[in-house]
Amino acid sequence: MLGIRALKKEALLALLLAGLALGGCRAGTAGAPENGTAAPARLAFTPDGSVIEAEEGKKPGLIANPTIADLMKAGPLGDRSLGRADAPVTVIEYASLTCPFCKAFHERTYPEFKRRYIDTGKVRFILREFPIGRSSGNAWLVTRCAPGDKFFTLYELYLKKQHYWVSQEVRIDRIFEVAKSVGMTRAEFDKCLANQKIINAIKWVKQRGRQLGVTGTPTFFINGRKERSVLTIEQLAAIIDPVIAARAAARSASGGNSGSSGSGGSG
Questions:
Q1: Rounded distance, CA 12 to CA 142, Å?
Q2: 77 domain-assigned
Q3: Domain count, the chain
Q4: Quick check: is 73 in a domain?
């Protein structure tokens, strides 16, 4: 019996490691609703979140080779970010709050990434919503309703406490209990869940992500370079450090300076 349990444990570990290697949590098809029911065929979304028919055989609005300008287009509510606005490197993450791989990145890599790059003014970090499932959608909605200085705090709390609130059933009361820890009242919480403006804005951000080629989480764009995996600090450094070095060399050659370092707030 113990041998069988050990084999099962090893099999689960192997599946988790395989998922990490493949890049994380996958979203449904472009037109599928979040509750897993069948969607009408060939759906596309307009910027305001309404549904239109798409041409047969084409992915709705897919941007094959997105430019920096395409990637930097913020949603209706603007972006939430950390770090200097003029940092030499911009890292955009699309994340789902129910995704264990997003949690793995923010537990294993993010603290050192923030200390080494965001807090020193080398990276601007932008976090965007890509909810997978209704539970994630509700939690993202509540996170967007939090005051700007509580946004990243609540985001990290939802990831840290996935074991408490994530389920096949939507646990609204438990989603609230997490939000309450940053000072949100039940009245504010209920009002937020009914805020159609924010609901439509999050839909827009997710559909824009799909247009940019996001199919699962976490997905990163690092100065335009797409990476879909639970990146380690070494992998991030291998991408970021050469960009910073090249920028410093260019400024040195032109007689400029690299500027002062520091961190900014959310925007």
A1: 32
A2: yes
A3: 1
A4: yes
Q: Is there a domain that residue 108 lies in?
A: yes
CA distances to 5, 6, 73, 141 from 2, in Å: 5, 6, 54, 44
Output 55-62 pairs: Cβ under 8 A, ≥24 positions apart.
59/30, 60/30, 60/31, 60/207, 60/210, 60/211, 61/207, 61/210, 61/211, 62/210, 62/211, 62/213
Domain holding 132: CATH number?
3.40.30.10
> What are residue 220's DSSP bridge partners?
93, 227
Judge contact between 51 and 45, C-beta under 8 A.
Answer: yes
Each residue of 114-146: b (16+ CB within 10 Å) or e?
Answer: bebbbebbbbbbbbbbbbbbebbbbbbbbbbbb
Tens place of pLDDT per residue across the chain (267 aa) = 444 444 444 444 444 444 544 457 977 533 333 333 333 332 232 333 322 223 333 455 899 999 999 999 999 999 999 999 999 999 999 999 999 999 999 999 999 999 999 999 999 999 999 999 999 999 999 999 999 899 999 999 999 999 999 999 999 999 999 999 999 999 999 999 999 999 999 999 999 999 999 999 999 999 999 999 999 999 999 999 999 999 989 888 887 554 444 444 444
- Residue range of the domain that includes 189: 66-232
**Residue 169: inside a domain:** yes
pTM of the model: 0.78
